Amino acid sequence: MENTEQKSKILIIEDETGLLNVLQAYLQQEGYAVVGKRDGQAGLDAFHRESPDLLLLDLMLPGITGEDIARQVRRQSNVPIIMLTAKGAEEEKLTGLGLGADDYLVKPVSPREVVARVKTVLRRLETSAGRVQQSIIEYDQLTIDTWAHKVYLQEQEVELTPTEYQILESLAFYPGQVFPREKLASQVFGYLWEGEPRTIDAHVKNLRRKIEPDPKNPSYIKTVFGVGYRFDLKPGGNEEE
Fold this sequence. Notes:
Layout (H helix, E strand, L loop, with lengths): L2 H5 L1 E5 L3 H13 L3 E5 L2 H11 L3 E5 L7 H11 L4 E5 L4 H9 L4 E4 L4 H15 L10 E4 L2 E4 L4 E4 L2 E3 L3 H11 L6 E2 H9 L7 H15 L9 E4 L3 E4 L10
Parallel strand pairs: 1-2, 1-3, 3-4, 4-5
Antiparallel strand pairs: 6-7, 7-8, 8-9, 10-12, 11-12
Helix pairs in contact: 2-6, 5-9, 7-8, 7-9
């Protein structure tokens, strides 16, 4: 087991006592430090106090809802968020992802699957470990520092979630290459793709809002109709839709 995983702190905000206890036990067995809270306000207070490395967030909470917690967290932090909820409709998933969540699990959930998703998301934060040379990708007014996992637009740092960063880096490393949604999802998430391409679309939409001068007419991340996305070698071209 990697030391980085042993030191990671997970905050779970979940009002189902049984599920909370099970998830705490499984994650602690994997070496994570785990803090569990059963209502929205206590969870939000714990987030500010504990500064966790990842947040497991139920949406249907007493007091402050999970959606409101996600909004407040995203105003000040890009800590990874995995949402846990009984809301299984696709539109509900897209709403959660639109709030900046990195992943979304529908109850009932397998504790082993939750652990796997946690490991995957945290691993994306550690991919720069062991690199000995800084690597800079520059296109027009966009700069991607792949060593520090930082992105700059017109020399101003852009705050991205881990998932948004991974999508951008994956595309930018191969400019001009078309990535089908399924391939991009597999590369970013690292687990079996479940066949919901609009999940990737939601993350791309969030990413475009942050890096594109005109998100409705993107310069960098182009949509290839019926296939997926590519990173444009010549910013400013037209969409292939």
